[in-house]
Design goal:
1050 residues; alpha+beta; four-stranded antiparallel beta sheet
């Protein structure tokens, strides 16, 4: 039967692990347990029912028997990283991976089964390297990949009593061994010697011995058995280490530097060992604790935990924090604190000696307490193993919290701890026990509370009710000690009634106490409790304002006293007091501003403003308005104080368009340049809504006094040229300001505006003309007349003011109307002649116009004007007339020749004909053309008139179709009328003259109908004209064709 068959069936425990989970390996390992803990309903203080595991009533420690049938008696046991190794009689060892408990590896020990009665097992933190040592000095090594132990040839005849593994390996032990090597290992022996070695499996599977290196690195000053050995690294000093060496009477502390990086060379390859210098220096002047009397068991246990180490690359470092040592007089235990210690310094703090508890049988027989056989250390407890029981003692209060005996006849032989998985194991020859640790720190908060270590107590509370008890006690203790502010902060975090707590502090003269309570209490409310938050915030604001007022009064009184008593001995203290008050006030204002900023949505604004005004704190009033976004109040505040620049600055950063429209009139009057600069940085403003402010600025006369120019013109110019405003109001007012600001002799900017935007006409030209007339801007008026196409008025106005050059410019504006241009130039010439200008000036005007001749201006000269000055011009004019007459004569001759040619073409057109064969058929019905009236087209296609008409009616549009039908109806009616007219003389004997007149009218109508029908029907050939081209997208068949498609069959 295999060893797997020895496992008994079991039922694993099912529990919901809470934050304080049960520390056990039985359930996870798949090994059976003799106890089970059910999941109960836990009712919390607030009435909420949770289905998590109720660990309140469950014991912290419970001893469970592992349901595993051992094939033989157990000699030794070791557990590490969920790897459990048993040594049983018969020179066998069993390796069990608790994660896969059914897979058991049987390991052979090359010893005589009868000689293996006792041994020591040492398993490294990763569970990969195993050392076995017998009292006879037989030592063996086994790697996790082997199924047989190999003797350590170099350690022969040396009993190994203690091993210190590389403690940093604990950090990676939970996953797997970092490498094949164990790293540097310290080994203690029975004769007080310490060796250094490194365990590494050989690649040669046939090799029967292990040649692990061995180097003697230290000997104890007093050569006695080494019972415990521990190696720990400093968390913030990578190369500094602590080596604890325990014997039956002494505990050595060795501190020093050693490089034990995993990549270091093997011990056999080094010229010097890793720990030799450290141990040599540390033991030369040894730092040790000695317990007098008989040697004790000497077992050493160290508790390690993962802590953050800022000086290391790893996320967390494994650091030794507590230790315990079995002596003849009790358990010596304490804390390990790593700092800047060097060789010879101690790292032990708060050490104490705990006497062994008395057993019942010892007390009854008046015997000294029995010494435990082994010990282990958990986070808060010391475990003591006796031959028949296990005890747990709290390290904080030295009280025994657990004791349990094993079944009668069973003798416990060892205790081991899996440091990686935090599990505890015991064994007897026939049984394996697991000490299950559940919620170990359950009562730790209460112990710290009794010792008034409140912060530590809070750190170990599990629920709000426990924290409330701790804070109440802390608050009462601080209140009794007179530390009222800290007491108030603690009270605020408890469930003590608000009224009860406030009554303790409200009457105190120092308002800081009540403030501290309210500030801390405020942080405990949920955001949904708006009413409570609002009340507390408003109360705090009032308290802060009162305290600020008191500080102002105190500073004022101190300053006045200093002024009156300058010779007093306290003259130096008074200004110091004033400075101190100012510093306190600044700090208090910062706290108040931070409070308002954090809770601004809960502040009742009207009350806040009222409080600020009642206390005269305009600074707070202003700050609160800024915080809550009430910038309108801020602007009004600065304007009331006359600080217009500050008001403009607030507007520039936080102002809305409505605020600009509201306050710009007053600010434009006070600080126009700064306001305009700010307005130009606001892209969302509507310029026409700012015109009232600009008009007030203009009416006040500030524009004429401003050194920087008219700011209204500056802003409107920006709106038009930079923002591309298209608002006619803006353009009209800008033009108004330009008209007012420009001088009659310098209309440059005004004319530039009219010239640039004249074609768009975004301003009112009639209004602009009125303004220019009103202020006498003649050049602009003339330009506006031209824009309105009133060219004669423009020329008249220019001539009225004697500006001949301006008149000439505008006389050329109607370039597309030669008659008007000539008339305008005649006006100018007449004005020049009327001014008795010299003949040369008049002739220069004629030449410049390119439209006037000497004959045009001669009528305007006086009757007795001498023509000698115009003789040459007159001769030139006559020669021009003669040339024009010759051109007209040539044109008349050419027109005659053209008329004759056209007449000849018409005669030829009348004689044009087409030859039609006698067998020619209609292109539609294929019948001979001669049977009835027909049409022949230039393309030689011929059609019967009725066939062509039907074809055209089928392809033309609805209007043409209706018109053809009307003409056909009229033709039938005219034929009937013509027949009646021909028969009328025969019936009535009428005169021939009436018949001919009526018949002529009918014939004329027949000809008109025929011409219209020809125009509609015979306009083009239906086979090669546009009508045929338009039918290219139509199908060949029509609705009359059959659906079977037989007509298209090949």
């Amino acid at each position: 039967m295999s060893l797997l068959d020895d496992f008994a069936e079991y039922q694993s425990r099912t529990a919901h692990h809470s934050a304080a989970a049960t520390t056990t390996a039985i359930a996870s390992a798949g090994l059976g347990s003799s106890q089970a803990q059910p999941a109960d309903l836990a009712v919390q203080d607030d009435g909420y029912i949770t289905t998590t595991l109720d660990t309140t009533d469950a014991p912290i420690f419970s001893l469970d028997t592992v349901q595993f049938q051992v094939p033989n008696k157990i000699i030794a046991l070791a557990v590490s990283n969920d790897i459990l190794v048993l040594v049983i009689e018969g020179a066998k060892a069993l390796r069990i991976n608790l994660q896969h408990a059914h897979d058991i590896v049987e390991i052979d020990i090359p010893l005589n089964p009868q000689s293996l009665r006792a041994c020591s097992l040492f398993l490294d933190p990763s569970g990969a390297h195993l050392l076995l040592s017998t009292p006879q000095g037989e030592n063996f090594y086994c790697h996790e990949s082997w199924d047989q132990m190999r003797p350590l040839s170099r350690f022969r005849n040396i009993e190994l009593t203690a091993v210190a593994w590389n403690a940093p390996a604990l950090a990676s032990a939970a996953s797997a061994a970092a490498s094949l090597s164990s790293g540097t290992v310290l080994v203690g022996t029975h004769d007080g010697r310490i060796y250094e070695t490194e365990l590494r499996p050989s690649d040669d599977r046939k090799q029967k011995r292990s040649d692990a290196p061995m180097r003697l690195v230290a000997e104890l000053p007093v050569r006695e058995r080494i019972t415990g050995l521990s190696l720990s690294a400093f968390p913030e000093r990578r190369k500094h280490h602590l080596v604890l060496i325990a014997t039956g009477t002494r505990l050595y502390q060795v501190v020093g530097a050693a490089d034990i990086e995993p990549q270091a060379a093997l011990a056999t390859d080094r010229k010097t060992s890793v720990f030799e210098a450290l141990l040599r220096d540390g033991l030369s002047v040894p730092n040790f604790q000695e317990i007098p009397g008989m040697p004790g068991p000497g077992a050493l246990a160290v508790y390690r935990r993962e802590v953050k180490a800022p000086g290391r690359l790893q996320a967390a470092a494994v650091v030794a924090t507590d230790f315990a040592w079995l002596t003849s007089m009790g358990v010596f235990f304490g804390a390990l604190t790593f700092a800047a210690q060097e060789a010879g310094d101690s790292v032990v703090e708060n050490a104490s000696l705990l006497p062994y508890p008395t057993l019942d049988r010892d007390a009854s027989q008046d015997m000294p307490p029995e010494q435990p056989l082994a010990l282990a250390v958990t986070e808060f407890h010391i475990l003591l193993q006796y031959s028949d029981r296990i005890r747990a003692i709290n390290m904080l209060n030295s009280k025994m919290v657990f004791e349990q005996q094993v079944s009668d006849g069973d003798v416990l032989q060892g205790l081991t701890v899996d440091e990686a998985k935090r599990t505890c194991w015991l064994f007897s020859p026939l049984n394996i026990y697991e000490l299950v640790v559940t919620d170990e720190d359950r009562d730790i908060w209460d112990i710290y509370l009794m010792r008034r270590m409140y912060e530590e107590a809070l750190g170990h509370c599990h629920n709000d009710s426990q924290r409330d008890v701790v804070r109440r006690a802390q608050a009462e203790q601080l209140f009794a000690a007179g530390q009222y502010e800290k007491s108030a902060e603690c009270y605020a975090l408890t469930t003590v009634g608000f009224e009860e707590a406030v009554l303790r502090f409200v009457d105190m003269k120092d308002k800081r106490v009540l403030r501290s309570y309210l500030v801390t209490k405020l942080g405990t409310f949920n955001k949904q409790e708006r009413t409570q938050i609002t009340l507390l915030v408003m109360w705090l604001i009032e308290i802060y304002l009162s305290m600020l007022g008191a500080l102002d009064a105190k500073a004022a009184a101190a300053g006045a006293a200093y002024t009156e008593n300058t010779q007093d001995q306290q003259q130096q203290q008074q200004p110091d007091l004033v400075v101190q008050c100012e510093l306190e006030k600044d700090q208090m204002l910062k706290e108040l501003y931070a409070l308002v900023l954090e809770y601004k949505q809960y502040v009742h604004a009207p009350t806040a403003y009222q409080l600020a005004e009642s206390h005269g704190r305009r600074d707070f009033w202003l700050h609160y308005a800024s915080v809550c976004g009430d910038y309108q109040r801020v602007v009004e505040y600065w304007m009331e104080k006359g600080s217009y620049l500050q008001a403009i600055e607030v507007l520039g950063h936080y102002g809305t368009p409505e605020m600009f429209y509201k306050y710009s009139p007053a600010l434009m009057h006070a600080e126009p340049a700064s306001l305009v600069e700010t307005l130009m940085r606001q892209p969302n403003l509507t310029a026409n809504k700012l015109i009232p402010a600009l008009m007030r600025y203009d009416e006040d006369g500030r524009a004429q006094k401003a050194d920087g120019g008219n700011q209204a013109i500056r802003y409107l110019r920006f709106c038009i040229h930079k923002q591309n405003s298209r608002d006619p109001t803006v353009y009209n007012y800008y033009l108004t300001l330009l008209v007012k600001e420009s001088a009659a002799s310098d209309e440059g900017e005004l004319m530039g505006f009219l010239t640039t935007y004249g074609t768009d006409m975004l301003y009112d030209p009639d209004y602009a003309l009125r303004m220019c007339k009103r202020y006498g801007r003649i050049q602009s008026c003339v330009h506006l007349y031209s824009l309105l196409k009133l060219y004669e008025d423009a020329v008249d106005l220019a001539l009225k003011h004697g500006d001949i050059e301006l008149a000439q410019i505008h006389a050329e504006r109607p370039a597309d109307d030669d008659k008007l241009c000539k008339r305008l130039w005649l006006k100018i010439a007449q004005h020049v002649i009327s001014q008795q200008a010299p003949a040369s000036a008049v002739m220069e005007l004629v030449r410049r116009s390119n439209r006037l001749g000497i004959e045009d201006i001669l009528p305007y000269f006086p009757d007795f004007t001498r023509v000698d000055d115009f003789r040459d011009e007159i001769c030139v004019a006559l020669e021009d007339y003669e040339g024009q007459i010759q051109e007209l004569r040539g044109e008349m001759d050419e027109a005659g020749r053209t008329a004759e040619a056209m007449q000849r073409d018409m005669q030829l057109l009348r004689r044009r004909f087409a030859v039609v064969g006698e067998s020619e058929g209609c292109q539609v019905c294929q019948l001979p053309l001669w049977q009835r009236q027909f049409y022949v087209f230039p393309c030689q296609h011929a059609f019967h008139a009725d066939c062509l008409t039907r074809r055209v009616v089928g392809t033309c549009n609805r209007v043409q179709r209706r018109r053809i039908q009307e003409l056909q109806s009229q033709s039938v009616e005219l034929a009937r009328t013509r027949r009646q007219i021909k028969l009328k003389p025969m019936v009535r004997g009428g005169t021939a003259g009436g018949k001919e007149e009526s018949e002529e009218q009918v014939e004329a109508q027949v000809r008109r109908n025929r011409a219209q029908m020809d125009a509609l029907v015979a306009a083009e050939c239906v086979l090669c004209g546009e009508a045929m081209i338009r039918t290219v997208g139509e199908p060949f068949g029509d609705d009359g064709d059959g659906d079977d498609g037989d007509g298209w069959a090949i």
